[in-house]
Design goal:
The chain has 14 helices and 17 strands. The chain has 437 residues and is α/β, with parallel strands linked by helices.
């Protein structure tokens, strides 16, 4: 049987890793797929031949459209990233009857609905395991391994850069800006780190996880996104004193009113396994009604960890090449005519517990005023920590943990607390999740 011919778009970190894994493990991959898999055509504007296994027999061009329009190519692997021209390339490949594998989370989160419809109309597959959490097979786990379950919620550390920064802040008492600079020097963060530290990258991935967990269309524009740039080393330390750690989490939960879809710094109990995922590693915790909690841990980025997921997708596509399109695993886990119209909840409707930190003038009655405001909003206090004033300072940090309440109620309470004469500056608010049932 002739080998399946692959067209590779991009020979950078992930593209090069994919090329090398396909070459190095060719015999093992053939044993698994049932057919040989051969990179026949690749496109890259720049690449370093020294980083690649032998390129003998591979046509390399700087024109990506030459690859997607090559009649000999069976599967197009898109690894250039970004929205355009990736979207146009993928849609062109589909129109040409080619299957697609991509690691592009931004593309899937924003344009996945359009892409999957086009693929369905053409009877081809689009695989995207590497788009979320690098080498961790979380898409397959939720879409196939947990298909017997009602998924209740998913919570994940799905951006390694943010996790590295928070780990360094906790372990070494360092400031955010200092650790960010090191992350950039180490290559963990881009020169413009906005997508990583402000949660956009995680929101792309969470949008995909929510769709396959709950069978709703991809709705990135409705994801609540908050970054970690305002987290201080004091917040990290106070959280530890209460028995919590701060992680930058993506959380999606199904409720009776709709789907929560949110990325933000979160206090979680230090005893949870996911609280002990450090450095650039990723982890995703999935709660199913039948299986209970399951945790998936591993490298969320890097050349060969991500290539592992890309090549696994290629193998899956090859295995299913001759299958009836109606009998393939649906792109978003649920049959297209069975997708839910359950809405994405606005953040005001989300209910969670809170960590609040404020600077208060060191005088009698201030704490009573704060607790009265919270009580009037029906917000119960779980714990209070009041620190001694620094030498010569007239104000003191006051830290509160609350029980669960709606975000809208907390917003109103914070506005009233900040209006008190005895409160200086803004109240720092970090959401708190126990991550139990």
């Amino acid at each position: 049987m002739n080998p399946v011919k692959v067209g590779l778009l991009g020979l950078g970190t992930v593209g090069g890793g994919t090329f090398n894994v396909l070459r190095r493990n060719a015999s093992e991959i053939t044993r698994r797929a049932g057919r040989g898999i051969q990179v026949a055509h690749a496109a890259a504007r720049e690449y370093d031949p020294a980083t690649l296994e032998s390129t003998d027999g591979v046509k390399i061009t700087d024109d990506a459209f030459a690859v997607v329009n090559d009649p000999d190519i069976d599967i197009v692997v898109e690894l250039i990233g970004g929205y355009e021209p990736a979207r146009e390339l993928v849609l062109t490949a589909i129109a040409n009857g080619k299957h697609v594998v991509t690691a592009n989370k931004a593309l899937i989160a924003l344009h996945g609905n359009e892409i999957f419809q086009a693929a369905s109309d053409k009877g081809v597959m689009v695989a995207f395991e590497a788009a979320v959490a690098g080498g961790i097979p979380i898409i397959k786990a939720i879409r196939e391994g947990l298909s017997a379950n009602h998924i209740e919620w998913v919570a994940g550390i799905i951006n390694g850069t943010g996790n590295f920064i928070l780990t360094e802040m906790r372990d070494k008492g360092r400031d955010f800006a200092d650790v960010l600079a090191e992350a950039q020097a180490l290559g963990y963060a881009e020169a413009d780190p906005t997508f990583d530290v402000e949660g956009v990258d995680a929101a792309h991935k969470l949008t995909i996880l929510a769709s396959i967990a709950f069978g709703v269309p991809l709705q990135f524009d409705k994801a609540y996104t908050e970054g970690i740039s305002r987290i201080t080393r004091e917040d990290v330390s106070y959280a530890e004193q209460f028995g919590y750690r701060i992680k930058h989490l993506g959380i999606t939960r199904k409720t009776g009113k709709g789907i929560e879809l949110r990325v933000h710094p979160t206090l979680i109990p230090e005893k949870r396994l996911i609280a002990n995922v450090d450095g650039v590693m990723n982890a995703v915790l999935v709660q199913g009604d039948a299986v209970g909690p399951t945790l998936y841990y591993g490298a969320g980025a890097g050349a060969e960890p991500t290539a592992s997921a890309v090549v696994a997708d290629i193998v899956d596509v090859v295995r299913a090449l001759t299958s009836d399109p109606e009998n393939r695993v649906p792109h978003l886990a649920f049959q297209p005519d069975a997708m839910s119209d359950l809405p994405i909840l606005p953040m005001d409707e989300v209910e969670t517990a809170y960590y609040l930190r404020m600077q208060a003038i060191d005088e009698p009655g201030v704490l009573a005023d704060v607790t009265r405001i919270l009580g009037d909003a029906s917000i119960s206090i779980e714990a209070i920590l009041q620190k001694e004033p620094a030498p010569g300072a007239s104000d003191v940090p006051v830290i509160l943990l609350t029980q669960r309440t709606r975000e809208a109620q907390m917003n109103m309470a914070i506005e009233k607390i900040e209006a008190l004469d005895a409160i200086t500056g803004k109240v720092t608010r970090i959401r708190l999740e126990e991550l139990g049932r």
